[in-house]
Amino acid sequence: MNRRSPCLLLLSLCLALAAPGCGDDDDAPTPPVDAGGADLASDDAGGDADAGGDSDAGGATCASPGTPTTPTPPTVASATSDFNVTLRDCTRTSVALACEVGVEHAYSETISGGFRVITANGIVNHDIGTFPNPDNPNTITAQTYSYRVPLVPSGTGRESTHFGIAFSGSIFDPGTAEIWNANTTWRYEALRYGTAPDYFASDTTMHPSGLGVDCNFAHVQPTGAYHYHGVPTAMVPAASALTQIGWAADGAPVFARYGHSVATDASSPLVELRASYRLKSGARPAGAPAGNYDGTFGSDWEYVAGLGDLDACNGRVGVVPVDGAMVSTYHYVLTHTYPYIPRCWTFAPDASFDVMMGGGMMMGGGPAACTPMMTTRCCGDGVCGGPETATNCAADCP
Hints:
Shape: globular
Number of strands: 20
Distance between the termini: 57 Å
Oligomer: single chain
Radius of gyration: 21 Å
Order of helices and strands: EHEEEEEEEEEEEEEEEEEEE
Helix content: under 10%
């Protein structure tokens, strides 16, 4: 079996003389990007229609990369949605992105020895936001992803970090590098970061005021890795549907938002599935960020069995389409409520997902490059966003 993306942007068709900024990434410079995220390269990229929210059909080119059509989810708090960040519009099509970075989207799967072997380059085949942006100084670049997942999940699960990979070629990576006072118990939530500045006065670690998350609940690592913190809007149909969007590291399929109201009954209606987490009640303990549990930190949430439709790892057994057939199997579901992307694996993850990503951290990437908005505490190594304190960065931390 071999799965390849329906959107291979044929950048090799770009004419070298007519399109000096659009072609082989080995010898083509990266075209500049204007304030609106439009690709400024010229001539053909040979795009085709993408599944999931892109408007590259009709022979889009580097000169005319199409107009994004993916909607930006509103900032809401309801029974089915719970995030307080202001998402940035998706301003670039996949053709514009591919022309900008000089390399086409790539994702493939092969079956070998009881495993699904996956390779990808992180250049997605759907609309995305503008990067860098005022809250995220990083530029998207091609990655080298090589993973394998078991065809039959088994073994004992554990807390997840680098959770899995989407068919878009990007990574499900729910955690962040931002922690309160270098205390990993109190890690800021990417999709609840709207209230993070409320805690900065008592936080000796330097953090950005925002994370620059786009309409796909995604942003960019310092290494250039575009990655998801929530449901990739562009990969999910507007109407309710059973939509597999990728694989978890333990081999279980990953779906988005919807499932049958009766998990094992394919004739029951599709509904938006609910996670089984809620905010803890009362005030945080001594030594923690002051105030009541409000969702800003992962530790503000607790699992309550049976509260929603999904288990502690945001999964369940139910009837879903996998590899072209309807089967009853365990699968994960990404939701618009915490934990958004699962924070644990039900089965044993493959060791290939232990590879570090993004600046040496698997949970949301490593420290960001120093920027004008992050200059009050910046170690002599030239990076900010640590944990960096007067103890471990005495040279230039107040």
